[in-house]
Specification:
It contains two helices and three strands. It is an alpha+beta fold. The protein has a three-stranded antiparallel sheet with strand order 2-1-3, covered by helices on one side. Helix 1 crosses helix 2. The protein is elongated, with a radius of gyration of 14 Å.
Length: 87
């Protein structure tokens, strides 16, 4: 899931701005995205980066289905998408 989100975040990022976006998202057993929300109080990013982070979580959906032995109906993920410019 992390790799899929990272791939979409890099693909959607087209500017040279930096910041960190904190998000919580919920994935259902079949891999579909149930909910995604921004944690404003922790996020240190402008509106462009917030929009890219939210879009990346949505674009990366659907996620892999849960393994057979995992009986939860849904799982919640906390992620930080960090936009940095390496020199």
């Amino acid at each position: 899931i992390r790799e899929k989100v990272r791939r979409y975040a890099y693909g959607n990022y087209t500017r040279y701005e930096t910041g960190e976006v904190y998000l919580v998202f919920v994935v259902l057993r079949d891999g579909s995205l149930k909910d995604v929300r921004l944690i404003e109080e922790k996020t240190k990013a402008n509106s462009y980066l917030k929009e890219i982070a939210l879009k990346s979580i949505k674009d990366a959906s659907p996620y892999p289905s849960f393994p057979e032995g995992l009986s939860y109906p849904e799982l919640s993920f906390n992620v930080i998408i960090s936009f940095e410019i390496s020199g």
